[in-house]
Amino acid sequence: MAAQTPVEDAIRQKITAALNPTTLDIYNDSHLHAHHKPMQGVTSTETHFRLVITSEAFKSKMQPARHRLVYSLLKDELAQEGGIHALQLRTMTPEEEAKRSAQETGTN
To answer: Where would you find the membrane-spanning parts of this chain (predicted)?
Structure first.
């Protein structure tokens, strides 16, 4: 039986293997974009994703380098017909995630 979410499964597998994330949240936002003109006739339900990734692998890398790293991991999914059309990324180190969490809860 074929997986119901092959693109999401590939994202999870590749990012987990390469980055060993402490946080990996994958949001499939494809349904929010199905009515857009470029999506007309596309039958895939896995075209638009938001990823939140926390990993030590991002230490000493600026955001553009972090994003290039993720794009390189997902190059096949980005290139394939019916694959990823849009990818929104939030990439953090564990320290950045802790600081953000503290700010959101109002503790320092």
So the answer is: none
| Residue 11 host element (H or E) | helix 6-19
Q: What CATH number is attached to the domain comprising 54?
A: 3.30.300.90
Per the domain annotation, does 1 fall within a domain?
Answer: no
Count of Cβ atoms closer than 10 Å to residue 107 Cβ: 7
CB atoms within 10 A of CB 54: 22
Order the strands of the 23-28 sheet from edge to edge. Answer: 23-28, 48-54, 86-92
Which one-letter amino acid corresponds to residue 38?
A: P
Choose among 25, 38, 32, 22: nearest CA to 82: 38
**Domains identified in the chain, total number:** 1
In the chain, % of residues over pLDDT 90: 59
Which residue range(s) make up the domain with 81?
6-105
Pair of tokens at residue 47: 């075209």
**Reported pTM:** 0.83
Specify the 3-state DSSP secondary structure of 66: helix
Specify the length of the chain in residues.
108
